[in-house]
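Lecture 7, part B: from sequences to assemblies.

Below are the input chains for today's worked example.
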Amino acid sequence: MADERLQAAVAAAVLPAEEDFGELLRSIVVVARAIFGAQASSIFLLDEDTDELVFAAVARDEDRHLVGRRIPSSQGVAGWVLSARTPLVLEDVRNDPRFSHDVAENTGYVPKGLMAVPLLHDDEPLGVLQVLDRPERSTFSLAEMELLGLFATQAAVALSLLRKARRARAALAGDADATSVAAVAERLERLEGPRREAGRRLLEALARVLR
Amino acid sequence: MAALPPPGAGAVSEAKPFPAWSLPRDAAATIDLANPLPERVDRDWAIGGSTGAGVRVCILDSGVERGHPLVGELAGAVAITVDEDGETIAAEDTEGDLCGHGTACAGVVRALAPDAEIFSVRVLGAGFKGSGRTLVAGLRWAVDQGFDVVNMSLSTTKRELGDILHELADSAYFRRTMLVASAHNMPVESYPWRFSSVVSVGSHEEDDPLVFYANPDPPVEFFARGVDVEVAWIGGGSIRATGNSFATPAITGIAALVLGKHPGLTPFQVKTVLYLIASNVGG
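Predicted structure of the full complex, as structure tokens:
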């Protein structure tokens, strides 16, 4: 058991940092926004403990203040998409007074049209990807829907990694032994060349002393 | 909530001259087919002149807005919840639609089958937590009510619910309740649309709601209008929407037309008729 815990500590230590995942998610929404020629794009992460959707990434710099903001998962199209596990593309959403009010209250930006797709990895619901205000065309195409699905798959994998990393770190928190081992593993991971080799030898010597 | 009326035409006959699991020699002539299909099934035979009258359609979704001009009167509306002991509570739904999606589906059915009785069974909209359990409880409740067609423009990815949904789908199939379910357009396992006892629906890009195609490559069995569809939405208005969610009620509406004209057909027969009148088969 102790071995497993310490192995988890070492594994967690070499995981990419929270910011790296943030960058990955952001790159996905930036590309999604560019490919669709949309005004904005965002990823929500589901917080199952509080039953809320949390803004995890936004494509536009001016929307960065939204990251971390929470909305109830019962609210609006994003919540529905996740509960029903089905993607939706809606145009003219301003005709929906409740939607406009809720969204405006939460983000200050009311889109005219939106695409929302659930982010699912295996059977785990992870969040929602939204693309807002793609250019007006006569009709939406199924090819665009497929493309949205591809982005969703990519975003879901990224969210899944982020969630695993957070869980691993949470498991370590408060465990002094594991935290110490994790800290050493993290430092070693950052070293290169002869310094890394020296570090490894030092740790082996330490292991012998502690025997 | 007033008690729902009992299942309509098509109740399975009680007394059989032979056991259900075998057929003695010379007994074949005693089988009562009840509603045999004719030698030639075309659209005129299948749905010509039908308005869906007498057919009870359930929209298992986010609720349906009462009195919406594109939906009209509802025959009933309940909200499903599951209490701490796991008991299903079906209370009269006074909140209507919490998202817009259920109203959209009801409007698609209404446009095709103007005289069908539409019931709303709300299983979504109260948050993500418990949505899978509520979906299962709502479907079980709907199957118990003996609806003729249940529209499910939703699915769950929870594997532990997959087996229960499978049993419910088979139970519905034998009790002459036809489940019409949205296919997923992403590479994820979700249910119940993958089960052969339901009718699974994906989207095509054409504008005619009566145009639909049979697909010989499972698991999606039919493609119906699902792109840039003008649908009813909360607030009495409408929006344009895309998704298999809106193709599914098109097949539900056409199935209601078939059952309105030929009450008592089994889900197997209705699916066969849908195949025979599909736009790329005989329609």
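Note for the exam: The mean pLDDT of chain A is 82. Keep this in mind when comparing with the next example.
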